[in-house]
Amino acid sequence: MKNYTNVLDLRNYTCPDSIFFLRKKFRNMKKKEIILLLSYDPSIKRDIPIFCNFMNHKIIEIYTEKEPYKYILQK
Question: How far apart are CA 33 and CA 64, in angstroms?
Answer without folding.
Answer: 22
